[in-house]
Amino acid sequence: MDDLIKQVSERTGLGEEKAKTAIDTVVNFLKDKLPAPIAGQIDNALSGAGGTIASAGGTVMDKAGDMLGGIFGKKD
Q: How far is the C-alpha of 49 from the C-alpha of 27, rounded, in Å?
């Protein structure tokens, strides 16, 4: 999760606390909307444990960072 916070912070220009808040908001939203078995994979991916989503690792995290960057006005 620390890697994701760092990436979101770097890509959006947000401080780490705001990046963490944004990530927590998105993660909780997804977990509420997805079926339980899939929602459980989110925690696995963020903790670095095995699983389908975690195996895509960088790609998923990169896309999440890009999406959050667009939402919060990415700063180059």
A: 16
